């Protein structure tokens, strides 16, 4: 049984509501830990992030706007996405369970 | 319809450019173009308009179509051109005239529309749309989504080759209304093996051109800005309204397995090329950016029969300029103002147009 314990607000860039398990990616060496359906959390745009995004269920980026690279690709691939949540790559940890709302821009962490 | 008042064209131009520039990310990979290209931007602009003149494009739609391959090729360099003209202290009425010349080219390349209409991007005439969509479609939604995944991946792949100059690879257009009421979006990916820019890279057996066509439910509500960015402002996911898709190469419909194979091949290249760029020195990235920038007008220089490559003198100016830092900002944003509104006023040269 999970309860919402913390909520963050970011900029919604790709619509859809998704619940899943977080994987924080800081370098390309982290790609291997992504499993199908994970919510990947990245700092900012880099083309390489598209590769794990193809397996992901949703995207969270610490930086960016509606036309940042990750937002554009998330819309193309069809995964919900939120960007621009300060320090989120340090706040979230691998294994955290979250609900992401790509229409409202809300991110709920479940405990 | 096409006798739109010139001043109105200039106002529309300002709005069209301000949206993608104002909404874009402050962080670009590997760096923002403006932070490295500023010492030579004015030279690029002078060359560009001189070469348009040399090619005799003004007043000749066919020549525009031979010298450029799509409207996005022009649109995506538009703010750099204006900034370069401002850098060069060109008279503002001359800037207005040059923007109108630029819009003439866009109109020629854009099925006689100088501007995208209500978020649509119509390059093809209606009669040509059905001719393009003649191949077998993947009606299975899962298969169709893989085609869209490949499109997203190719957007990233283009960045590893051309940085922000996505137009060198990607031309997206639509959404065209089909006879049955559904919509078609066409994504064309070209120049996928730019060996002239990256002679050290192994592109293996990757194709040089791919076309991905997606058919969507009539309730699809997506549009494009003039820089070819796809929007779904009301939260409509293109994927959820996806009915079918096809990926073609050499006018042949690729199988599902072939699409999966391309996703695998391009994924590997995206990872390799990203690492390669991220391990380059700042000066090498600036030099490569300059090369990419000049490559943007390769089709024009090919048309007039001269090399596209920047001269060594340009690289010297680049290095010196980067050491000294920017002398001035071409576009100055007043604090507290909405960025898009501010950019509209900065890019609007309509009041300077001489009657």
Can you give a write-up of this model?
The complex is a heterodimer of chains A (111) and B (355). Chain A has helices spanning 50-53, 69-77, 88-91, and strands at residues 4-9, 11-14, 17-24, 39-42, 58-61, 81-83, 97-101, 106-110. Chain A is α/β, with parallel strands linked by helices. An 8-stranded mixed sheet of chain A has the order 1-8-7-3-4-5-6-2, covered by helices on one side. In chain A, strand 7 (97-101) and strand 8 form a beta hairpin. Chain A is globular and about 35 Å long. With 355 residues, chain B is of the alpha+beta class. Chain B folds into 2 domains: 6-115 and 281-352, no CATH class; 119-278, no CATH class. Chain B has 14 helices and 7 strands. In chain B, the strands form 2 sheets. Chain B has a 5-stranded antiparallel sheet, covered by helices on one side. The chains are: A alpha/beta (111), B alpha+beta (355).
| Topology, number of strands of chain B | 7
N-to-C order of helices and strands of chain B: HHHHHHHHHEEEEEEEHHHHH
Record field, number of beta strands of chain A: 8
Percent of residues in helices of chain A: 10-25%
Poorly predicted parts of chain B:
none
Instruction: State the distance separating the first and last CA atoms of chain B.
Output: 21 Å
User: Rounded to an integer, what's the Rg of chain B over CA atoms?
Assistant: 20 Å
Rounded radius of gyration of chain A (Å): 12 Å
